[in-house]
């Protein structure tokens, strides 16, 4: 059963309804669900799906001719088997076919044309420029290697620069959608799911391992998925990212590993990796702006451009987990997987705590706070931190997030502490204080006292 992606499908259908030709790029990291999305979109339309595998042009042509025959032959009067001797001829034919009838054409793993036939990008550009006005083709290029896709379409020196009408980045499911995706397939407790989500993130492909691998306990499940000898995700980070970064992947890996271990400022990363601070800066900027694997965060009350308080974070839960616990322990994992797993068990709880902060923030962004926040995020300063601050000109809400079961007494102590921290923030307005934990004893009482109090039950309501 196809799950969610409502916004993406809506966007694609809107583009489909435009008269004339459009060039759409859908990109996103491996396994995020790009192929599933385009296949779902094609279901009720006249469209062709071409997978660009890295083989000879002649072999690709055979496959593509078959697809054309399957989908289009009954739309062509007196059809006789087509002969095409190049990819260009196919593209020209499809552009001409669509002069009479709206047509969708998908090239999946579009970046592979670079190895199949590098000259295709410039011949496609010429054909497109010449024929798009008179045809009705929705051309969709799907790509997995984010850096490569951006180069093909956004680098001025490349022939296809400026030809894309819509660029859609497909992201992993958010927490809520990941939960409903998995819940419709297996019985699982919300507590276990938060722990598993900390390692798998909202990646449909990884979540789909759970029906087979879930052992009724998150730690044992993670052991089978990541730590055992034949664990399916043990090499996954390497498999996905090595191709993305190419020959120089080691430097990128060192940086990502350092960030996953909690070295989050350029200075800390430079000290940890031994790379010069200028080099680190260059890689950080590539990983943030080009590859989009890192997010650059600043305290939520500060100006993102001017502030010098910057921290980097790995956006994808899976990569964060993989670098932190698998890549970091690669050598030991070969020799003594049990030992690595024991070490992991001791460190996993605080790690889940961090993920829960993100889940809580997603929840707060959708919450009715009684005002509309302009910004929502984390705030920190030497030795002090507030997990979530949501504010506008005249209202402020502060939250502490805890991945634990709180007694009423604990909760009150935490809220008092939060009231003290409010003094450190230079925000004016009416303040509200809140707490989001795994569970809270007597949260009703806190609510009656005017506090915001939520636990996992509210998040997955
Ligand atoms: N929205 C969805 N609903 C149900 N299943 C999905 C959805 N998205 C992805 N999946 C499933 O998750 C798996 C990975 O998705 P898919 O192959 O589409 O990803 P991809 O981005 O094309 O990955 P790759 O880079 O490996 O080609 C597939 O088994 C697919 O069926
Ligand atoms: Mg795919």
Automatic annotation (TrEMBL):
<feature type="domain" description="DUF234">
    <location>
        <begin position="322"/>
        <end position="414"/>
    </location>
</feature>
<feature type="domain" description="ATPase">
    <location>
        <begin position="2"/>
        <end position="210"/>
    </location>
</feature>
<dbReference type="InterPro" id="IPR027417">
    <property type="entry name" value="P-loop_NTPase"/>
</dbReference>
<dbReference type="GO" id="GO:0005524">
    <property type="term" value="F:ATP binding"/>
</dbReference>
<dbReference type="Pfam" id="PF01637">
    <property type="entry name" value="ATPase_2"/>
</dbReference>
<dbReference type="InterPro" id="IPR011579">
    <property type="entry name" value="ATPase_dom"/>
</dbReference>
<dbReference type="InterPro" id="IPR004256">
    <property type="entry name" value="DUF234"/>
</dbReference>
<dbReference type="Pfam" id="PF03008">
    <property type="entry name" value="DUF234"/>
</dbReference>
<protein>
    <submittedName>
        <fullName>ATPase</fullName>
    </submittedName>
</protein>
């Amino acid at each position: 059963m196809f799950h969610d992606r409502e916004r993406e499908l809506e966007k694609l259908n809107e583009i489909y309804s435009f008269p004339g030709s459009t060039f759409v790029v859908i990109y996103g990291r491996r396994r995020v669900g790009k192929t599933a999305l385009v296949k779902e979109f094609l279901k009720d339309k006249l469209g062709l799906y071409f997978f660009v595998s890295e083989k000879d042009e002649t072999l690709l042509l055979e496959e593509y001719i078959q697809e054309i025959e399957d989908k289009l032959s009954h739309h062509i009067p007196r059809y006789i088997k087509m002969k095409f001797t190049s990819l260009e001829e196919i593209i020209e034919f499809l552009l001409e076919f669509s002069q009479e009838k709206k047509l969708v054409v998908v090239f999946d793993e579009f970046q592979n044309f670079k190895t199949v036939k590098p000259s295709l990008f410039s011949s496609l550009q010429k054909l497109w420029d010449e024929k798009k006005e008179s045809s009705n083709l929705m051309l969709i290029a799907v790509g997995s290697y984010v850096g490569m896709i951006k180069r093909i379409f956004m680098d001025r020196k490349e022939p296809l620069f400026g030809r894309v009408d819509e660029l859609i980045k497909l992201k992993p499911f958010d927490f809520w959608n990941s939960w409903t995706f998995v819940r419709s397939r297996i019985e699982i407790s919300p507590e276990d799911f938060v722990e598993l989500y900390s390692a798998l993130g909202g990646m449909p492909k990884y979540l789909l391992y759970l029906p087979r691998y879930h052992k009724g306990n998150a730690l044992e499940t993670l052991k089978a998925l990541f730590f055992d000898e034949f664990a399916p995700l043990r090499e996954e980070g390497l498999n996905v990212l090595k191709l993305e970064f190419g020959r120089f992947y080691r430097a990128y890996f060192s940086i990502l590993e350092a960030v996953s271990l909690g070295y989050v400022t350029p200075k800390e990363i430079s000290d940890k990796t031994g790379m010069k601070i200028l080099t680190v800066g260059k890689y950080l900027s590539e990983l943030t702006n080009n590859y989009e694997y890192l997010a650059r965060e600043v305290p939520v009350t500060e100006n993102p451009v001017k502030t010098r308080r910057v921290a980097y974070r790995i956006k994808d839960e899976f990569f964060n987990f993989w670098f932190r616990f698998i890549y970091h322990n690669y050598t030991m994992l070969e020799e003594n997987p049990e030992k690595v797993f024991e070490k992991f068990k001791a460190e996993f709880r605080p790690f889940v705590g961090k993920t829960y902060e993100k889940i809580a923030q997603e929840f707060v962004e959708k919450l009715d706070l009684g005002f509309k926040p302009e910004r929502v995020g984390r705030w920190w300063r030497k030795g002090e931190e507030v997990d979530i601050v949501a504010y506008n000109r005249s209202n402020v809400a502060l939250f502490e997030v805890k991945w634990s079961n709180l007694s009423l007494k604990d909760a009150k102590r935490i809220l008092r502490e939060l009231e003290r921290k409010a003094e450190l923030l230079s925000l004016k307005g009416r303040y509200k204080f809140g707490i989001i934990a795994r569970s809270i004893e007597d949260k009703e009482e806190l609510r009656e006292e005017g506090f915001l109090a939520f636990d996992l039950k509210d998040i997955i309501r």
